[in-house]
Every structure is written in C-alpha cells, then in structure tokens.
C-alpha cells in the first residue's frame, strides 16, 4: 500500500521544501493550505496553487480560519499592529500567531484520519526561526503524542519535521539539491507584489540565500 502524507503547505520556502522531501521519500501527498487572514493571504494562496501544480498534487484542501483576525494579537493578522522591520526581536516576536501550528496540526490530523494518511509533514524550523514556541522539537513531540491518543486506534500518525534543526542556508542548499522551484514560493510578511526585504521573514530568507552563495529570484523592494 502506497504511503500517504498530509503536507501543511503555506507556500513559503520551508513548507515547500518539506513537501518536496515528502515526495522524495515516496509519499503520495495531500496538500493543506490555511487562509487565516494573514496580510499576504492572496499571495500565499497563489504560491500554494503554483507549487501543487509543480508537484502534480491532485488532492488538496484550502481551509479558511477567520477567527485569527477576530482575536488579533499578531502583526500578521491585525493590521493595527506594525510588522517589525528593524531586525529580529528578542523573545517571542509580535508576528507570532497564538498557537497557530497547534491549530493547523489539529485540522491536518482530522484530514489525515479521513484520508488514511501515515504522516504529517510540517516545515517548522527551530534553529534559525523567529523564536516561535510552536516551531520547536519539544512541541512537535508533545502534540504527536496528543493526536495519537485523541484519534482512532487504527490511526497512527507521525509528524515529520525534516527542517527543524536546519539553518536557512542549509534549507536553501537542500532545496537546490532537490530542484525545488523557490521562485514560486513567498515568505514576506508584509507585501504581495514585491517582497519588502526588511521584515523578519525576508531578512532570514535573504540571509539564507547569501550564505548559500545563491540568488533569490523573487522580486524585492529592498535587497
């Protein structure tokens, strides 16, 4: 029986690489994307669809989660809060969306159970991330146990995080090795036409390409 994996695919560089790694491991992919009121929602959705087309994914879900804009508390979902552009903050940054990955993984688990999948892939990065508590190895281990306790006995899911201990330049190099079309991905927190180049996500991405001695081919306002 063919292995099946649900891949949480935002359209960003990390989740895209994780999805291509799932394909490289021989999984049939079920792609899941979340529209949660983020500033770059339309651009991320375009990236998701472009990547699904490149991967020839037939089974995909586009899930709307409107309540994140209701609770606010994050610069990604509340436009009254400015996205930081002065470098990485200490502690948990204002771009953290409360328990986002926990909610994403819960919904993805329901889909995986319905689809009889064996694994969930998520492109969390602990080593070189922005300090989000739901991107850590400890969190993934804990929620893996929880979802397997809270699902049918016949459902046995592994959460696979192939990028969790990689640095951004290693992610770029791995993506190039697997011929991942990074030009289709989108990472900017602020803009949808040209990446701003100054938000935390753009800074991490650009620094990764620089350290990997490679050129990022998406358009930037500032590079």
Automatic annotation (TrEMBL):
CDD domains: QueC-like (cd01995). Catalyzes the ATP-dependent conversion of 7-carboxy-7-deazaguanine (CDG) to 7-cyano-7-deazaguanine (preQ(0)). One of its GO terms (molecular function) is ligase activity, forming carbon-nitrogen bonds. Signal peptide: none annotated. This is 7-cyano-7-deazaguanine synthase. The keyword Ligase applies. Pfam families: QueC. The lineage of its organism: Bacteria, Pseudomonadati, Campylobacterota, Epsilonproteobacteria, Campylobacterales. It is an enzyme of class 6 (ligase). It catalyses: 7-carboxy-7-carbaguanine + NH4(+) + 2 ATP = 7-cyano-7-carbaguanine + 2 AMP + 2 diphosphate + 2 H(+).
